[in-house]
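User: Can you write out an input/output pair for a complex, sequences first and structure second?

Assistant: Here is one pair. Inputs:
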Amino acid sequence: MILRILLLIILFFVLIWTIGKLFLSIIHEKENDAVFIGFFVYFSVFQILALPLIIALRPLSWLSVSWGTIAVGCAIVANICYKPFKINLSGSCIRTFRKSFCDKYLSLEGIMMLLLVILQTYIMLVQIRQGWDSAYYNSNVNTSIYTNSMYLYEGSIGRPETTLNLRYAMSSFYMHDAVLGQVFGIPGTVVCRYFNVAVCSIFSAYIVYKIGKLLFGETRWAHLTVVFWVLTNMGMGTMYLPNEFLIYRSNEAKSYCCNIVLPAIIYVILKLYKEPDNKMYWKWLFIINFASVAISESSMLLVPVLNGCMLLGYFIIEKKWRNLGKGIICMLPSICYLLIYLLFRLEIFTIRITA
Amino acid sequence: MWNIVESYFGNTFYFIILLCLLVIISMKKDIFCRKKLLIAIGVYCVCFPVLFVITSKFGLGNVFYRILWLFPVSIIVGIVSVWILKEKENSRGYYIIWSVILLLMLGNICFDTTHWKLPNNIYKVDKEVIEVAELIINDAEEETIVVVGEETFMMQVRQYSPRFRWGYVNRESMIYADRGNGSNESDRLAGAIQSNFFSPNNNIMDDLEKLKIDYLVLYQKNAFIEQMPSDTYEVIGTTYNYLVLKLNIN
C-alpha cells in the first residue's frame, strides 16, 4: 500500500507538470513555472468535470472514468504534439540534468532546505492527531468509495442525506481523493492521510521557494526562505495558525487553502507588482481563483478579500485602472460560489436527493 | 473581535512578532513593492472589522479567524530572516545562531517523541478501535452496521470501515453529550454512554430500540450491563477497554 501511495504522489506531480506544460503551450507562454500553474489548472479542470456530476447526483465511477480518460489523454497528446515532453535518455541529457540539479540544490542552503522539507513531511506523515473535522472528511471519502456516490451520505454518521450539502459539495477536493482511492484501490482514509499530506508539504514548500526566488533573486536566499519557513512551522503553534493546519491537518482542504492557495495568490500578485504589464499573470490569477474553491470552500471568502486588498495596492500605485475589469473577472469565480453558498444557507437554493 | 485575534495567536507574543515584522517590511526601502504592500495591509486593516460584522450576520463568526490567514506568518518570518542574514557578510556562520534565536523566540518546538513515532497501522486509527470493528464485522450479517459507543471509538470507526453507521443522529449528540439528560433519544444515549451513567428513568432500552442500534460498544467497567435485561443483548467480544454487545431488541 505504501508503494502505491508513493507511486500515486509521483504520478500526480508528473501529471500536473504535464498539464502545466500543455497549458503554457496552449497560451503561448514560455514561463518556466509548469508545476505551479499545472497544479491549479489540474484542479480547475477537475472541478469543471466533477461539479456537474455531483449536482446531477451521478456515481463516483463516472467521475473516475472520465477523469482517468482525460489524464491519460493529456499525457498522450502532450507526448505526441510537443517536443519538450519527449524524454531524452541520452548520456549528455542525463549529465546536463545532473549538473543543473547539483548546481541548484547541492549547496549548503539547498541541502538544508531539502533535509528540512523531508523532516517536515515525515513529521506530518507520522502524526496521528484526531479531530472531528478530520473524521468527517476521511469518513466522507471512505463512504464515497464504498457506496460509489458523491455527497449522498452524511460524512460523520453514514446516514443518507435528503438534500445535497452545498457547504461541502461545491468543492470537488474530497471527491478527487475518492477518485484516486477508487482507481488505485487505496482506502479513502489512507489517501487523505498520506497523499494529501505529502502533496501539501511539498507543494507549499515549492510556493515558498518561488516567493523567495521572486523577492531575493538568488537561489541561495530562496532556499533559506524555505529553511526558516520550516523552522517557523515547527516552532510556532496555536490552534488556528496556518502552520498548525500544515503540520497536523494537511489531510483537510483547509490546510491547502491557507498553505497553498493563499500563498499562491500572493506570489502571482507579487509577480504583477514586479511586472505590471504582463498579461500572463492575470490569466494565472484567474486560474488560481477558479481552482481555489475546487480545492477548499474556505477560499470562497478569503480569496476575493486577498485579491481585493492586494490588487488595490497595484491599482493605486500603478494607476492602471484599465486592468480593473481583469481584476473583477479574476474574482468572479469565488464571488459566484459565495453567492450560491449564501443562497443555500438561506435555504433559497437546495438540491433534493430522491432515493 | 479582539477575542478572535487573541485566540488565533494563542495568548502568545506571536502577534507582536507579526507586528514587528510588518514594521520591518514597511521600513525596508529596497523592496520593489513596498508601497503596494503597505496599501494592501492598510486596506486589510480597514476591512477587518467590516468583514467581522458581515460574517457574524451570516452565522460564520466561528470561522472568522481564517481571515487572519491572509497574513502568512511563517512565510513572513522566513522572508525577514533572510533579509536579516543578507545584511551580514559571510552569513553562513550566522545560520545556526539565527535558527536557535528563532526557535527560542517562537517557543513551541515540536520535537517531543510523540511527533516521531510511526503510527501502528496505516489508517492512523487506534489499534483497539480496529479490534472492536473487526469483532463486529466478523459477527455482522447485514452490510450496514448501526453502532453506538463512546467518543473515541465513534470518531474513528468510520475512518476504518464505512460499513458502520452511527446510531446517533448527528455529531452534536456526541460533542455536547450530557449525562443522559438530552431532549431526544440520540442526545440521551450519547450522554449516558459518554458519561457511563445509566438511570432506569432514562429509558435507554427504548432509545436503543427507536434508533435501531445493532451493536453497543461500552467501557469494560460500565453502568449499563447490569441494568439491561439479559435477553436483550449478547456479548460478542472484549478488548482492553471495551465491551462489545450485540443487541437483540430489533
